[in-house]
Structure formats: structure tokens, C-alpha cells
Design brief:
single chain, alpha/beta, Rossmann fold, 2 domains, 6-stranded mixed sheet, 4-stranded antiparallel sheet, 10 helices, 34% helix, 27% strand, binds adenosine-5'-triphosphate, binds magnesium ion
């Protein structure tokens, strides 16, 4: 009997990607293969400089690998991301960068509206208000972006991404680079819950995170990237995010902390000692 529920198609993938910023430099990513399925959040975890941001840039088609490729699969169609025109990419792949560029005096509302324009849609007050509401920047709508705190600016990046996703009436992926790094615990929880809603709507979500409690709480899947730009492990978070894997990745011992029998965070042993 045929399987009545075929697996969710993998939308975004990297196959044997090797990337270098210049021929005279060692590769930043080496033979990297990974899949980022629709309907789930995949965390990318690794040391500073491992190549996490670079991997997002390859997946977005902003830079071209030396060998291998990033691909975007829709039913009956596979495309190499690097070959897609910029407009087509913006109607499929949505980016929250690690740092938003200075925004030349734009108001928050205007920046959020740009998400709709990127997706090829016109202004829509209700849609923009909804995206701002979900990212909790409604009360900042008339403020110049450049005058906001860093955590507030990160919420604007999320709002712009939500506005762009809402305007895409097709499969799409969201790639977010440390989107809550400057947020307080309450705002970070709201932001990551918003990413969960995006995944539940059937989008592929890829998020770079350093906070392991956030990975455990929000991300079904995890890719561990080692300092040489190689995949150290990739799969369900509960299988991948172990004290042994983290010790090998970061070079210090970790202890798991559990609540109700479930691992809720992983703490470097030295920090745990200081706290006791
Ligand atoms: N534009 C660039 N030109 C040359 N080298 C770069 C460029 N951007 C990044 N690199 C180098 O590539 C490597 C990977 O950088 P990347 O920003 O991808 O790391 P990361 O894992 O995102 O680190 P972090 O956790 O600090 O954000 C680093 O060694 C960095 O110095
Ligand atoms: Mg980075």
C-alpha cells in the first residue's frame, strides 16, 4: 500500500558546498551537505567564525560556492539558488541578517513595508500593521529605525521578514541570523514563537543561535558546524545537541540540565560551578 502521507518535501538544501571568500584563503565551508525541511525550524550552532553567516549567504544565493550548490526545491522543480534572479529569490527566500544596515532615517513602518516590496507586493496597511503587531513593534511604527535600541532594531528585522513572508503566496523559507541575540528573555521568547508560527505555516525556517536553551525549546532540528566549516552533526535536536558533541565542538565540558525529565539547557561546566 502506498504511504498515505509522503514526507514533507525538502525545500532548501546545500550539497557538497565548499566556499572561500578569496582564492588565497582557506575555505570557510567545506563539502557541506544539509537539508532544511519545510514545516520545521533548523538551528545552526557553532563557534564564532565557523561559517554560520556564510552558510546562510550561500543558501540565499548572495555568494556563490567554489563547488557544490545550494538548491531550492518546489514540487516538480529544482533550482540552483545562485542561478535564480534576485527578484525570484526575494519571492522565496527571506533573510533576517545578523546586523541590519544603517537605514538612512527610514521610519520603522517604512522598513516593514519594504518587506512587501521585496516580495513584489504593493503597500497594504492592514498587512503591515499585522506584521508589526506580531513582531511587537507596533508602538515603534513612527520612530526612525536608527534611533532604536539594538533589541528593538532586531524586532524590526523580524517584522520586515514577516511582512515579506505574508506577501509570498508560494513555498518560502526564512533564514534568520541570531535574530534574538540582543533581545531580553521576554522579547526573545516572542520572537522565537513568531518563527514557530512561520514554520507551522509550512515554511522552512533556518536560524543561527548561540543560546542552547532556545535551540532546545524551539528548534526541531540542529546542524552543528565545526570551526573548520564542516558539518559535525545534523539531525533531530535531541540526537544532535548532546554534552559530548558540544564538548567536541567548543572545547569545554558541558552539563545537561533537565526539567521534568527533558533536557532544557546545556551549560558549560565552568559556568555551572561558578553559579553553585
Ligand atoms: N566578507 C568577508 N571577506 C573575507 N572573509 C570573511 C568575510 N566574511 C566573513 N569572513 C571570514 O569567514 C569566516 C566565517 O565567518 P562567518 O561570519 O560566516 O562566521 P560565523 O560562524 O557567522 O561567526 P559569528 O558566530 O561570529 O557570527 C571567518 O573566519 C571570517 O573572518
Ligand atoms: Mg555570524
Amino acid at each position: 500500500m502506498p504511504d498515505p502521507s509522503p514526507p514533507t518535501p525538502c525545500l532548501l538544501a546545500a550539497r557538497a558546498v565548499t566556499f572561500s571568500y578569496s582564492p588565497s584563503h582557506a575555505p570557510v565551508l567545506r563539502e557541506l551537505t544539509a537539508e532544511f525541511p519545510a514545516g520545521a525550524i533548523t538551528a545552526i550552532v557553532g563557534p564564532n567564525g565557523a561559517g554560520k553567516t556564510t552558510l546562510l549567504r550561500v543558501l540565499l544565493g548572495l555568494v556563490r560556492p567554489l563547488s557544490g550548490e545550494a538548491s531550492w526545491t518546489e514540487p516538480a522543480r529544482v533550482q540552483h539558488v545562485a542561478d535564480m534572479p534576485a527578484g525570484a529569490r526575494a519571492r522565496r527566500l527571506v533573510y533576517i541578517p545578523q546586523r541590519l544596515s544603517p537605514a538612512f532615517g527610514f521610519l520603522v513602518r517604512e522598513l516593514v513595508e519594504m518587506g512587501r516590496h521585496a516580495a513584489g507586493a504593493g503597500p497594504d496597511r492592514a498587512a503591515i500593521a499585522s506584521a508589526m503587531e506580531r513582531a511587537r513593534v507596533g508602538e515603534l511604527a513612527s520612530r526612525p529605525f536608527d534611533e532604536l535600541s539594538v533589541g528593538q532594531q532586531q524586532r524590526v528585522g523580524l517584522a520586515r521578514a514577516l511582512a515579506q513572508l505574508d506577501a509570498i503566496n508560494a513555498p518560502a523559507a526564512l533564514l534568520a541570523d541570531e535574530p534574538a541575540a540582543a533581545m531580553d528573555p521576554l522579547q526573545a521568547t516572542h520572537a522565537l514563537s513568531a518563527l514557530t508560527d512561520v514554520a507551522r505555516a509550512g515554511r522552512a525556517v533556518v536560524v543561527v543561535l548561540h543560546d542552547l536553551a532556545q535551540v532546545l525549546a524551539f528548534c526541531e532540528r540542529t546542524l552543528l558546524l565545526d570551526a573548520a566549516g564542516r558539518v559535525a552533526a545534523h539531525g533531530p535536536t535531541r540526537d544532535v545537541l548532546t554534552p559530548a558533541a558540544l564538548e567536541s565542538l567548543f572545547g569545554l565540558p558541558f552539563d545537561a540540565a533537565a526539567t521534568g525529565g527533558k533536557t532544557t539547557t546545556l551549560v558549560p561546566r565552568t559556568q555551572a560551578r561558578l553559579a553553585s
